[in-house]
Design brief:
Blueprint lengths: L1 H22 L21 E12 L2 E9 L9 E7 L5 E8 L6 E10 L10 E9 L1 H5 L6 E8 L7 E2 L14 E9 L4 E8 L2 E7 L6 E6 L10 E10 L6 E9 L10 E9 L4 E2 L6 E2 L7 E5 L9 E5 L14 E2 L6 E8 L2 E8 L7 E3 L11 E3 L6 E9 L3 E6 L5 E7 L4 E5 L10 H5 L2 E5 L5 E9 L2 E6 L4 E6 L8 E4 L5 E11 L4
The chain binds beta-D-fructofuranose.
C-alpha cells in the first residue's frame, strides 16, 4: 500500500513536472537547423521589423511584424515578447490583429505616464500603420493610415482606439511606420513618419490628435528606395558637452552600400519642430546586408539608446533556408555618437549585459594559436582581438565540408571585405548570390580592433568598437569549427580572446 502511494506520488509529481514543462510553450526547439542560440526568433512562422520597443516596469517589450499562418510575409499582426535583459525572451500572445481598417504594419509604443490620452495612467500606447490590403489591390493610393491601441496590462491585451485612424492618408502611397517619443523640452508627444521619400514630423498633446510640424528631405541623387521605419533621438557626443539629434531611416529597394535594403542615419539639430543637418553624404548604421528596419527603445531606464534591427534583407528574406520559422533580430546594440575626423559617427556596440553569457575558452589543439585553431564551439562564439597591420589581413572561418566565410582588410586600398560566396547554402535565392562580397571603405589603418559574433546563421562584425559594423546571414551546411588567419607576415595580434556564448533559448 505504502509502495503504491509512493508510486502514485511519483506519478503525480512527474505529471505535474511535465505539465509545467508543457506550459512553457515559449520554449523553442533548440536543435532546429539555423535557429540562433542567442538571437531573438519567433517561435514559429514569419517575422520582420521590430515594433513597439518600450521598457516598462523592469521589462523590455519587443513587438514585431508577424504573420502567424506562414513562414512568408502575409497579413501583418504584432507579435510580442518580453525580457528582463534583452537576451532571454519570453514569448507572449499576439498583441495586435488586423481589423476592418487593415493589417497592422510597423510602429512604436510609449508609456503614457500622466494619462494624457485618458486611456489610463501608465497605459502602454501603441501607434502603428493600418495597411488596407483591399484598397491597395483596387489601385487606390490612400491605403495607409495611422492608428493607436492601448494596453493596461503590460502589453498582454489591447484595445484599439474607437477614433481610428488618428491620421488619415493625405494622398501619399507610402505613408507609414510612426515612431512616437516624448519630447522633454517641448513637453509633448512627437512623432516621425515616413512619406515616400521624406519624413514628416508631427506633435500631439494626447496621442489622439496630431498636427504636422515639418518635413525633412535629403537630396539623394539618384534617389534611394522607399523611406521606411524612421527614428529620432538625442545623443551626447562622446568626450564633449555637445548634444546632437540622430535621424534613422531604412531604405527599401537596392539602396544599401552592399545591395538590397539597408539603414542610414543623419546627425543634426532638431528644435522640436524641424530637423536640419549639414551632412553631405549617406552614412550607414551597418554595412552588411542583414540589418534592416531597426529602431530604438522608448523609456529606456538607463537613458541609453538601445537599437534592435531585423537581421535580414527584403531581397531574399522570404526564401532563407529555415523551415518552421523565419528571420531573427540583431543582438541589441547600444548606440553612441562620436566625432571622428570631422564627421559625427553613430557607433553600435553590443549591450553590456551580453558579457554575462560569455565564458573564456581554452584552445589546446594548436601550437599556431591564435593564428590557427579548431573549436566545436566556434559557431556560437565571440572572437575579439586587436591587430597591427602592415600587410593584408585575411581570416577564414570554415568547416570540414569546405564551407568558408572570408574576412579581409587591405591597408593599401583601405577596404574591409567579407565574402560569403562559399559560406554554405547560398543558392536559395539569386539575390543572395548577387551580394556575396561586401565591402566597407574604412581607410588606411595601422591598427584595427575586430570583434566577430557568430551564431547558428549569422555573423556580426564590429570594427573599432562599433565605428563600422557588418551584419551577415550565413547558412553553413555544418557548423564552422576552424579559424585561420591566413597571412601572418607583418601582423601583430594583441589581446586575442575567444569566448563561447551561452544559449538563451
Ligand atoms: C519595413 C516594412 C515597413 C512596413 C512593414 C510591413 O520592413 O516594409 O515599412 O511597415 O515592413 O511588414
Amino acid at each position: 500500500m505504502k509502495e503504491k502511494s509512493l508510486i502514485m506520488l511519483f506519478a503525480i509529481a512527474f505529471i505535474a513536472l511535465s505539465c509545467k514543462d508543457n506550459s512553457k510553450s515559449d520554449v523553442v526547439n533548440k536543435k532546429e537547423k539555423y535557429r540562433p542560440n542567442f538571437h531573438f526568433t519567433p517561435k514559429a512562422n514569419w517575422m520582420n521589423d521590430p515594433n513597439g520597443m518600450v521598457y516598462y516596469n523592469d521589462t523590455y517589450h519587443l513587438f514585431y511584424q508577424y504573420y502567424p499562418d506562414s513562414t512568408v510575409w502575409g497579413p501583418m499582426h504584432w507579435g510580442h515578447a518580453k525580457s528582463k535583459d534583452l537576451l532571454h525572451w519570453e514569448h507572449r500572445p499576439i498583441a495586435l490583429y488586423p481589423d476592418s481598417l487593415g493589417d497592422i504594419f510597423s510602429g512604436s509604443a510609449v508609456i503614457d505616464k500622466t494619462n494624457t490620452s485618458g486611456f489610463g495612467k501608465d497605459a502602454m500606447v501603441a501607434m502603428f500603420t493600418y495597411h488596407d490590403m483591399d484598397g491597395e489591390k483596387e489601385g487606390k493610393i490612400n491605403f495607409q493610415t495611422q492608428g493607436i491601441a492601448y494596453s493596461l496590462d503590460e502589453g498582454e491585451t489591447w484595445t484599439k482606439y474607437k477614433g481610428n485612424p488618428v491620421i488619415g492618408n493625405p494622398g501619399i502611397k507610402d505613408f507609414r511606420d510612426p515612431k512616437v517619443f516624448w519630447n522633454e523640452e517641448k513637453e509633448n508627444w512627437q512623432m516621425a513618419l515616413v512619406a515616400k521619400d521624406k519624413v514628416i514630423f508631427y506633435g500631439s498633446d494626447d496621442l489622439k490628435s496630431w498636427n504636422k510640424l515639418s518635413e525633412f528631405k535629403f537630396n539623394d541623387d539618384p534617389p534611394l528606395g522607399v523611406w521606411e521605419c524612421p527614428d529620432l533621438f538625442k545623443l551626447p557626443v562622446q568626450g564633449t558637452d555637445e548634444e546632437k539629434w540622430v535621424l534613422i531611416i531604412s531604405h527599401g529597394g537596392n539602396s544599401s552600400p552592399n545591395g538590397g535594403s539597408g539603414t542610414r542615419y543623419f546627425v543634426g539639430e532638431y528644435d522640436g519642430v524641424t530637423f536640419t543637418t549639414n551632412q553631405q553624404e549617406s552614412q550607414w548604421i551597418d554595412y552588411g546586408t542583414d540589418n534592416y528596419a531597426g529602431v530604438t527603445y522608448n523609456n529606456e531606464p538607463n537613458n541609453e539608446r538601445i537599437f534592435i534591427g531585423w537581421m535580414s534583407n527584403w531581397d531574399y528574406a522570404i526564401t532563407t533556408p529555415t523551415k518552421t520559422w523565419r528571420s531573427a533580430m540583431t543582438l541589441p546594440r547600444k548606440l553612441s555618437l562620436e566625432r571622428i575626423n570631422d564627421k559625427y559617427i553613430l557607433k553600435s556596440t553590443i549591450i553590456d549585459g551580453f558579457d554575462s553569457l560569455l565564458s573564456n575558452m581554452d584552445i589546446e589543439n594548436s601550437d599556431k594559436y591564435p593564428f590557427e585553431f579548431e573549436s566545436e564551439k566556434l559557431q556560437h562564439s565571440v572572437i575579439s582581438f586587436e591587430v597591427k597591420i602592415n600587410d593584408k589581413l585575411e581570416i577564414e572561418l570554415s568547416n570540414e565540408l569546405g564551407d568558408t566565410y572570408l574576412i579581409s582588410y587591405d591597408p593599401v586600398d583601405g577596404i574591409f571585405f567579407t565574402d560569403r560566396t562559399n559560406s554554405g547554402i547560398v543558392d536559395f535565392n539569386k539575390k543572395f548570390l548577387m551580394t556575396p562580397q561586401q565591402k566597407i571603405l574604412i581607410g588606411k589603418k595601422e591598427k584595427l580592433k575586430i570583434e566577430l559574433v557568430l551564431d547558428a546563421s549569422s555573423i556580426e562584425i564590429f570594427l573599432n568598437e562599433g565605428e563600422f559594423v557588418m551584419t551577415n546571414q550565413i547558412f553553413p551546411k555544418k557548423d564552422y569549427h576552424r579559424f585561420v588567419i591566413k597571412k601572418t607576415d607583418g601582423l601583430v595580434i594583441d589581446n586575442f580572446k575567444i569566448q563561447s556564448v551561452k544559449s538563451t533559448l
